[in-house]
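Quick illustration, no need to memorize.
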Amino acid sequence: MADTLTSPLSRRRLFIAGALGLASVASLSTIAPASAADKDWTEEFLTRSETREGFVVDDMDDWQIENAKFLIAAVKGHDLGKDAATIVLITAIVEAWLYNYEPAVDADSGGLFQQRPSMGWGTYDEVRHKKRAVDAFLGLGDHSSAPGLLQAVPDYDDWEPGAAAQAVQASAHPERYAEQVAAAQLIWERYADDVEPYTD
């Protein structure tokens, strides 16, 4: 992570530079994700638009890592643990590869969970707000009328994680969630101990 933040032309910055122009590279440090040390989940972080590029645990970029940490922090903030976090993570991996995905690729879907405003998950902005999106997915967001995890699967810890995710998402490709369980559990093992609960 340090290399990405200090090198002016890292792989990530070169990718963005190609899209924005080299003149924009100098300003990228101002939109870098919060460091693991300070846990400063800023409003800019919670609402920033990101690009879906790919997902492999060992190749996660800074945004994917910070989003994974934030999801763990938000789950912990609701006094939920590894089982709930695994379901949250596999869903965000499958739906948006751990990016707060902005462009609508499936009707009006958006955000980490590709939630649809037309299906009761909140407004256009709310489904793209990371805290509101994870709260809605868990069934703990007052802004959402869609049944979240705690409504759809109150005994989720007795379920196979992929099946629990599908109970919330009603995806046309339910098998994809189970494929990411190992990745989600590895992410939890790597980062959970260093992430404090987030309740704001």
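The chain has a mean pLDDT of 81.
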